[in-house]
Specification:
By secondary structure, this protein is mainly α. The chain is about 80% helix and about 0% strand.
Length: about 130
């Protein structure tokens, strides 16, 4: 993902709409995965219940289309090093939302992991800021 981010940041025309770029990348990636799945004979295992269909639509809209479009937009406006930090922050947000909405427990191992994540993000930002001052 980071290689694609760097390539799209520096080698793609600035005239391309970030949302169109995200849509094209997702269509091509989804098409490739669908072809592999069909070739492996996985179509017979593909079934939706009402609950799984609602979850699938939610993930397509909020977990893919909107978030990836926001990522591509941020990539066009922010430094790549800043934009790439989403990959570290997203799991922390997911654990917090699970605790807040679904009453999931947060264990000491999760708290320790969050401390490591926040320390790494802070360290990365400090390095970027000191390099920018030079």
């Amino acid at each position: 993902m980071e290689l694609g981010s760097i390539v799209s940041k520096y080698h793609v025309s600035k005239d391309i709409d970030p949302i169109m770029s995200a849509a094209l990348q997702m269509l091509l990636g989804g098409g490739a995965v669908a072809i592999v799945g069909l070739l492996r004979g996985e179509a017979a295992m593909f079934h939706f219940s009402t609950r799984s269909l609602v979850a699938f639509i939610y993930l397509v809209v909020f977990g893919s289309i909107l978030t990836y479009a926001a990522y591509i937009y941020a990539l066009s406006k922010l430094p790549t090093s800043t934009t790439s930090l989403y990959a570290y922050i997203n799991p922390v947000v997911a654990v917090f939302l699970g605790w807040l909405i679904l009453d999931e427990p947060i264990g000491w191992n999760a708290i320790a992991g969050m401390i490591v994540i926040f320390t790494g993000v802070w360290s990365s930002r400090q390095r970027d800021e000191s390099a920018a001052r030079r």
